[in-house]
Amino acid sequence: MGNTSNAVGSAVTPVTVAELPGLNTLGISMARIDFAPQGINPPHTHPRATEILTVMEGRILVGFVTSNPENRLITKLLQKGDVFVFPQGLIHFQKNVGNGYAVAIAALSSQNLGVITIANAVFGSNPDIAADILAKAFQVDVNVVYQIQSKF
């Protein structure tokens, strides 16, 4: 089991071409996601892969957001054995809604899927995105942006 004692309560163990060179040219990869109770796999996207997730243990709320202009949220509560698909490039997330640990296995349609975790990319870029830009984009006070950036 992955170490879930972090700020988000989850651990992702990837198996991509970076970890397993034998996947080169095969167009596939996998990941194991371990969740502490109430842990999340934060909103993120895979620019080069569709993902199919299978729940191995626990109850996991999953969701993704369709593209502009609708930005429609699609969610589903999954039980052990259930499967869900996240379309390529769309922002998606998972949350363990049970009281115990949960485990899911993800299969992806690329050996080099790419992962962009939204909060990390927006608030943890190096160098920082200017706080006034983020404040205007998120319609919050610039001090809120500074506070969030300090966590990354």
Automatic annotation (TrEMBL):
Domain Cupin type-1: 5-146
SMART domains found in the cross-reference section: Cupin_1
Listed Pfam families: Cupin_1
Subcellular location: Secreted, Extracellular space, Apoplast
Key words, A-Z: Apoplast, Disulfide bond, Manganese, Metal-binding, Secreted
Signal peptide: none
Molecular function in Gene Ontology: manganese ion binding
GO CC field: apoplast
InterPro entries assigned to the protein according to its UniProt record, in alphabetical order: Cupin_1, Germin, Germin_Mn-BS, RmlC-like_jellyroll, RmlC_Cupin_sf
Family named by the database record: Belongs to the germin family.
UniProt-recorded name of the protein: Germin-like protein
